Amino acid sequence: MQTTTLTKAHTTSTGTISTSTVWEQSTHLTTVPPDPPVVGLKEVIDNTISLFWTPGFEGNSPITGFYLEYKAANASWDYTKAIVDFSSNETDATIIEINPSTYNIRMFAKNSMGTSKASNVLIVTIKDR
C-alpha cells in the first residue's frame, strides 16, 4: 500500500512547484503461538496421576487444544512416545496404570499459529506397593 502526499513547496511568477513524498506502508502479520499452560498436580493414588492445567495467553489465535507428554525421568524428551491430546476446553486429566517409577510430565498449547513452548515440568514418583 502506498500513500502519496503532495505539498506546495514554492510559488513563482511562472507557476507552482510541487513536491511529493511517497510513503511505503508494509503490513507484517506476526504469528504468535500461545503461551504454555501451567501444569499442577491434583493427586497421586496407587498407579494413577491426576493433574490440571491453566491456559496461558492465546497469542494471535484462540487455543485449539493441548497435548501432554510424559516420560521416565531418565529418558530423553526426544524419544517421547506417550503423547495425549486434549481439546481446548479440557483443563484436567488422569493418567492411569502407570508403572512404579519417576516420571516427568509437561504440556503444550496449540493454536492456528503454532505450538507453545513446553510448560513447567512436573516430577512425579509412583512407588512400588
From TrEMBL:
Keywords: Disulfide bond. Gene3D superfamilies: Immunoglobulins (2.60.40.10). InterPro entries: FN3_dom, FN3_sf, Ig-like_fold. This is Fibronectin type-III domain-containing protein. PANTHER family: DS CELL ADHESION MOLECULE LIKE 1, PROTEIN SIDEKICK. It comes from Ilyodon furcidens (goldbreast splitfin). Residues 33-129 form the Fibronectin type-III domain.
